[in-house]
Amino acid sequence: MSVSGEERTLLVPDGLAGERVDAAIARMFGLSRTRAAELAAEGLVLVDGVAVSKSERLLPGARLDITIPSVADPLTVVPVEVEGISILHDDPAIVVIDKPVGVAVHPSPGWNGPTVVGHLVAAGFRIATSGAAERQGIVQRLDVGTSGVMVIAKGEHAYSVLKQAFRDRTVDKTYHALVQGHPDPLEGTIDAPLGRHPKFDYKFTVRADGRPSVTHYETLEAHRFASLLQIHLETGRTHQIRVHMSALKHPCVGDLTYGADPTLARRVGLERQWLHAVKLGFEHPSTGEYVEFESPYPDDLAAALEVVRDSV
């Protein structure tokens, strides 16, 4: 078997005589015992030229060969153009895009799909170098499963100004969400702190020790099974709209993670939550002029809304 990575060879010292393979490797190479056991299971640990199991006991003076495969950094930006990302505006300070569903804003552990940052680099855009390497120029984020308009800073001044604007909550962020049922009242404000779910680390929930989170909503259309809402975010927490609407017992249609009805999701043909960032308004970092950018509904959301509108 040929595996690229670091190859190490040494003789088992007297002090490790009688130790299990996984325990000895962990001590000698600074690995976790779990990782050491995985290497043995993959046939990457040889004692005197023979592959051994993790529980094998070592003899002093035995030759130990170990291959530690190289692991790609999950935060490395991979320049790949992404089909479906459209440029709504481009000038020397900023680029505004329409992000499709299924695209992350930047690389992160556990995500190996397309990213906005990777697309912009591949397409030849110069973006600000401020921020962590994997998310340079990023002043806001949208979930992988949320589509719509977002702005990226191309220069350092723009990055600083926009970052501060988002902190100061002077950016107008408008979303449309199709939610189950009919919120009562038809318009209102949800002020409920959000934090990670105690049992599922991929989810968030309302909790007393969470971060302050404020969502304003108003009903645009009320239909038999669902309501189309216009939502303004005062804060910008991860999954904020999805969690707040679920807490009201009106989850976004198609949002199975937060309690949506799977039967209704199938009926309207959705495989993700009906949530779209339709409008973004802010003072341009170079001119100070108020600018606004909009994104139309993508095909899957538009089709689902029509099904709901046609329901009698």
UniProtKB/TrEMBL annotation:
User: Tell me, what is one Gene Ontology molecular-function annotation carried by this entry?
Assistant: RNA binding
SMART domains the record matches: S4 (SM00363)
* Domain annotation RNA-binding S4: ranges: 19-76
Organism (species): Nocardioides bruguierae
Record key words, sorted: Isomerase, RNA-binding
What EC number(s) are associated with this protein in UniProt? 5.4.99.-
Q: Which protein is depicted?
A: Pseudouridine synthase
**Catalysed reaction equations from the record:** a uridine in RNA = a pseudouridine in RNA
Coiled-coil zones? none
Reported function: Responsible for synthesis of pseudouridine from uracil.
Question: Kind of enzyme, top EC level?
Answer: isomerase
What Pfam families is this protein classified in? PseudoU_synth_2, S4
The UniProt entry annotates the active site at: D143
Q: Name one GO biological process term.
A: enzyme-directed rRNA pseudouridine synthesis
Family per similarity comment: Belongs to the pseudouridine synthase RluA family.
NCBIfam families with a match to the protein in the record = rluA_subfam
